[in-house]
Amino acid sequence: MSDDLVKTMSDCKWPEGTCACYAQQVVKTDYAGRVWMHCEEGLSLSKASMSRFVMFCLTNRIEIGDIYPFAPDYPRSQVSASVRLKPEQFDAFETETGGKLRKPPVISLNSSSPSELKGQNDE
C-alpha cells in the first residue's frame, strides 16, 4: 500500500464525523476541469428536446450522468438530467438545449461529532 493511502485510512474518524478518506474522494478534481451540474428545467420528453440535449452532450464531450423523465407515460413531461461539463460550456449548454443548469445539492451525512448531535430534549 502507498503511504498516502495508509495515512488517509489511519486518519479516519468514522463514527465521530465524516470519514477522511471519503471526504478526500468527494473533493477530488476532474482531470479535465469538469463539474457535475443538474438540469431540472427546460428539458422535456420530446424527440426535439432529447435530440438537442444528447447531440450537444455527445459533440461537446459532456458526460451524461442520470436522465429521469418525471412522467414517462406523458409526452413532453419534464426531464431531469445530471451532466459533467466545463464551466465555460454552461452558457452554450443552456442556449443549445434550453435546459437551465444548477449546482447539485450537497449532502453530508455524519458531518458532526456525536457530541454535537444533541436534540432539543437531550441534556
Strand and helix order: HHEHEEHE
Question: Overall 3D geometry?
Answer: globular
Structural class call reads alpha+beta
Output the strand order for the largest sheet.
2-3-1-4
Count, helices: 4
The CATH topology annotation of the largest domain reads as Alpha-Beta Plaits
The CATH class designation of the largest domain is Alpha Beta
| CATH structural architecture of the largest domain | 2-Layer Sandwich
Strand content: 15-25%
Number of strands: 4
Bin the helical content: 25-40%
Which residue ranges are poorly predicted, with pLDDT under 50 across at least 5 consecutive positions?
A: 1-7
CATH H-tier superfamily of the largest domain: ACT-like. Chain A, domain 2
- Rg for CA atoms: 20 Å
Short description:
This protein is an alpha+beta fold. The protein has two domains: 28 residues, no CATH class; 72 residues, Alpha-Beta Plaits, CATH 3.30.70.
Report on this model:
The protein has 123 residues and is α+β, with helices and mostly antiparallel strands. It folds into 2 domains: 1-28, no CATH class; 31-102, Alpha-Beta Plaits. Helix content is 29%, strand content 20%. The protein has 4 helices and 4 strands; from the N terminus they run ααβαββαβ. It has helices at 3-10, 20-26, 47-59, 90-97; strands at 35-41, 63-69, 79-85, 100-102. The protein has a 4-stranded antiparallel β-sheet with strand order 2-3-1-4, covered by helices on one side. It is globular. The relative contact order is 0.20. Residues 1-7 have low confidence and may be disordered.
